[in-house]
Amino acid sequence: MDYSALLLSENAALADLVHGADHTVPVPTCPGWTIRKLAAHIARGDRWAATIIRTRATERVDPRTVPGGEQPADLDAEREWVRGGAQAILDAVAEVGGGTEVWTFTGPKPAAWWIRRRLHEQTVHRADAALALGRPFEIAPELAADGLSEWFDIVASRPESPLPDGATLHLHATDDGLGEDGEWVLRGTPSGVVWEHGHEKADAAVRGTAADLLLAALRRTVDGVEVLGDAEVWKRWLDHTDFA
Fold it and tell me: Which CATH number fits domain 3-133: 1.20.120.450, 1.10.8.50, 1.10.8.140, 1.10.540.10?
């Protein structure tokens, strides 16, 4: 999967989506946000990541110190501002080398880690914007599945498990062609959640397309999925994970 190319294409799709929209429209899946704030979150977050990479940061960078964070009032200029952040990430990685270790909120990682992270930041917030504006949200099954895996990696890096000790949760994507990449088994442990690709009977199972599973697992909308088994396990996951 070409994360660099996908970052640019997803970023452009998001920039185009918000460009012609009423910027005062609230974003229900991100309480307190408007379309304008969503655009700023993406553009500033991308520049923050680029600064971390370019400076080879070994600790968290204060987002308020990142240059280029002023949101243009002109909508055409804003679209280019949103697009510029994604390119800044790729330029920074090219400058320092993808293998250079830098700070991330999950611990030190190669600089290229940020490309995949910011790619999936774009996809989820593009979904937020589409839902807020009443537009369809479309995403390739392979990209949605990778977004789920990336999200589970983030949750697994946290010391607290969103699942009770010993509880299991199975997600099954119904799209053709995903194979094992479209199945996930998550387990609660005393030191956090662990996950792997695979198919097995679990306390709860959630079925749907990869796109619908992505939206459900990240608490955007659960309308497109079917829950089998112990629904409380699934509810516990939703109640104890967050993404903004």
Answer: 1.20.120.450
